[in-house]
Amino acid sequence: MAMSASEFKENMEHVFKEVLETGAPVEIELNGQTLQLAKKGKLKLDGLVSRPEFIQGDPEDLVHIDWSGEIDGDLP
Question: CA torsion 67→63→75→70, rounded to 10°?
Answer without folding.
Answer: 20
